User: Fold this.
Amino acid sequence: EVQLVESGGGMVQPGGSLRLSCEAAGFIFSSYAMSWVRQAPGKGPEWVSVINSAGGTIYYADSVKGRFTVSRDNAKNTLYLQMNSLNPEDTALYYCARTDWFTFYYDYAGQGTQVTVSS
Assistant:
């Protein structure tokens, strides 16, 4: 059974930072690309970033480029998202997703972790 469990969310002031983690189980983590996706209240899902299986190729949405950094530790089956210079528009439920590198579609996603940016 594929399991993806996110953690690290919380409330932070504008300009602050958070580091999200996603622990994976039930599949060969090192064989899959992974994505971070977010969904703000009342809006549809927004793709944030994707990293290939080896961690050597990464893409970011323009809205987070230069502020967010995705990484992975295949030995620990864990995906990370370092978020800096957060602003209220980053408020959303963030979840990780197992991703097909060639289509960028994802087949499994976690329950998500809430990030709230507010003063």
Remarks:
- The chain is about 0% helix and 50% strand.
- The chain has a mean pLDDT of 97.
- Residues 35 and 64 are 14 Å apart (CA to CA).
